[in-house]
Every structure is written in C-alpha cells, then in structure tokens.
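Hi R.,

As promised on Friday, here is the backbone we talked about, encoded as structure tokens. Could you run it through your design pipeline when you get a chance and send me back a sequence?
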C-alpha cells in the first residue's frame, strides 16, 4: 500500500501545512471539515504538492524533514514561494 507526504495551502491566509497518510483526498476532506485542531481555523485548504512512498515510515520521515528548516527552504523552492 502506498503512503503519501502532502502539502496543503490555506486559501484564506496562505498558511502551509505538511502531513502524511494513506489517502490524500480523504485527509484533505477531513482538514476542510475541521477535524484537525491545527488546520481548523485556516480552511479551506487545497493540495499543492504530494510525494508517494511505499511505506508509512518513509512518508513520515519525509514529513518530518519537510517541517525542518532545510525542508521549508526546499518547499519554498519547489512551490516558488
């Protein structure tokens, strides 16, 4: 089963969120529904980037990296922020 690392952008204030999971569209639905405390106040969200991994640990490792200083710089370059 594939796992994903994904990046969301708030359509309200441009805030960026990095997460991981099995189903990006289901996670997006739940973020926009308000199921997650951190993202609840910044909805609606849209997916702007995603990567696929063969297992959960690799996807989570990448999520952690993208949340680091170097990872944020990399995302800025990828997303041309």
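Update: got your reply. Pasting your designed sequence below so it's all in one thread:
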């Amino acid at each position: 089963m594939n796992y994903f690392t994904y990046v969301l952008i708030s359509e309200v204030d441009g805030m960026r969120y990095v997460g991981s999971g099995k189903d990006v569209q289901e996670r997006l639905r739940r973020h926009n529904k308000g199921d997650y405390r951190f993202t609840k106040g910044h909805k609606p969200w849209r997916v702007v980037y995603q990567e696929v991994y063969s297992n959960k640990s690799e996807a989570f490792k990448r999520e952690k990296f993208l949340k680091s200083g170097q990872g944020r710089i990399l995302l800025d370059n990828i997303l041309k922020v």
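One thing I noticed while checking it: The longest strand covers residues 45-53.

Thanks again,
M.
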